[in-house]
Structure formats: C-alpha cells, structure tokens
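Example record for the data management plan.
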Amino acid sequence: MTDEQAMMAVAGGDLDKAAVLYERYKRPVLGYFHRNLVSRDGPEDLMQQVFYRIIHYRKSFTEGYVFKPWLFRIARNVLQDFIQKNRNIFSGLDERMDIEEEKPYDQEQEYQLKRALDQLPQEYREVILLSRYEELKYDEIAEILQISVSLVKVRVHRGLKILREIYFQME
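Corresponding structural encoding:
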C-alpha cells in the first residue's frame, strides 16, 4: 500500500491506516524536529502533534496529492507554531547552540556541522535540511514552502555556500 493509498483510506475514515503512516514516518519527522530545535524534549511532542493534525485534517488530503510533501508541510507548520509560542527560546544564536558537551572524536565533524547549520538564516537552513536530511526533491520542497522550484534551487545553492563559509571559520 502506498502512502497516498493509506492516507486516502484515513481520509475515508479508516483511521487504522494512520498507524501505517506513523510507522513509516515517525523517524523522519522526529529527525526533522531534532535538527531544527535546541531542546531535546520537544521533538517527540511536536511529532505527536503532526500525527494528530494528520488525523484532524485528513479530509483536506485529496486525490492527486503526494503524501510526503503534505506531511512535511504539516510538520513545518507545527514547528513554526512552536517557535512563535516560544519566541524567547529562539531569539539569539547563542541560545540556539547546544551546551558544549564532551564529544567523541568521530562525532566532532557532525557536531560542528550542526553548529554551523544553526547559524544559517532560517530560509537557507530549512531548504538544506529538507533536501539533504529529509531527501525531498526540489519540487516537493517548493510545494511544502509554497515557493517556486527555482527559488528552492537558489536558496540551496546560497545556503550551502554560506554554510561552507561558516563551517570553515569554525575550524
């Protein structure tokens, strides 16, 4: 059963099929929130909100929709709502950085990359996370963000350039 078939079944009232989608997408959605938030506690709650909204807004999923971009648009809206309600947490870069911890050597580059990503402007960080970590296609990202594919390409290109500069300045 495809994601779209499962979601159409959910939209038609077969809520048991939501469990199939939950099992398929809980890790990618959780990863999306972990990469976008400082707090280690919040992502699980936000993931639950995403799947609640899928059930709540199931009737808005119609024939011809592709599930993954629809799901990540919901996840993005949940994240934006959370950031709006917790604006003081996200007000500065220093507050966005994780508290420095002892990192094993093999995780140091990943940690530095996360710190560099945290310093990117939101418009660039968002497209890079969606394209590189969530492995979404540019047309899917454009649909999620409700912008043109060409703007997605420009933001990815510029974002990677800025990210490279930030990363090498940190070394």
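Summary line stored alongside the record: The domain at 1-91 is CATH 1.10.1740.10 (Rna Polymerase Sigma Factor; Chain: A).
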